[in-house]
Fold this sequence. Notes:
Helix content: 40-55%
Number of helices: 18
Radius of gyration: 25 Å
Amino acid sequence: IRAIGKEVLDSITPGQQIVKIVHDRLVDLMGGVSANIKFGSRIPAPIMLVGLQGCGKTTTAAKLALLLSKEQKKVYLVSADVYRPAAIEQLALLGKQINTGVFDSSGLKNPVEICFQAVEQAKKNGCEVIIIDTAGRLHIDDVLMEELRKIKEKINPAEIIYVADAMTGQDAVNVGAKFNELIGIDGVIMTKMDGDARGGSALSLKSVIGKPIKFVGVGEKIDNLEVFHPERMASRILGMGDILTLVEKAQANIDNKTALELQKSIKKNNFSLEDFRNQLAQIKKMGSMKDILGMIPGLGKMKALKDIEPDDKELVKVTAIIDSMTKEERYNYLIIDGRRRKRIALGSGTSVQDVNLLLKNYMEIKKMMKKFNKKDGIKSLMRNFPF
């Protein structure tokens, strides 16, 4: 309906115009802009994480603590899950991993008292934020809700954030609506979004609950929590990629010195297997190959890549093969004869065919790199892409 009567611009097709209208509408439905946590003036600001068992609350508490620490905030953690000692132990281990203080609740059995004492301890420690990992259940019950209500009354949280498992689809929406109705929530963190690449569950949650999605978990690593950007998620839903997130991942994980050295190697036409290995290591830091390819506009529509399921184990195998080469072989692949290939395969626990395939792929990449040095090289390469 919104497309009817719209003037089609000369520079784009009617199809592109409709996609743009749909994209903008999706952005509006998901909140329009990114929503930050509102800490208020109270120090420390208590942030309550609520949700069902298995949604990833404990890991998310640590991920959020790390993200806020990177914003120069002093954070404290506490687990109020007295029913699962493993959850308390897990949070303590994660706290050590990210160098963040965790309240020791040994000997305490009352979740409300644990939260109150933890807030007081955070205040003494000069912390600005305390993240509370509350207990979950396999389903919502009166006992859980009463416990959460008592914690809310006792510590007066700055925000209550519902942690939703994106993989559970409509169930996550229904549970979120119930949490909002019974205790009130201020926002949502969606976990396991790497398994729901298109992000349809984010659209459902925002439209049904009416609360902003603040962060999304995009992997198992402790730093795999991102600020939710409606415009980027809309692009993913429409299969348009997410180039901005890809750029941010590259900026955060790619070493400038290594990048400059690679640039020099390409300019001199000296792209070696050592350079190749270094680049694979940088890519590995950015996340799974499937996620990276999904963020590049147009790649999902390319016939050659449509049926390929990127396997991160292949990166490990390739790295092992290059690691089994001598320094001389890495910088001069032409000396790698049949005898050397057998030795490399044996040393890396792979086959000679794997070594041959790696060298073949490397030579193809080296040819491609050569084109970058030619006049209009980049333009000729880009003609092969549908964007």
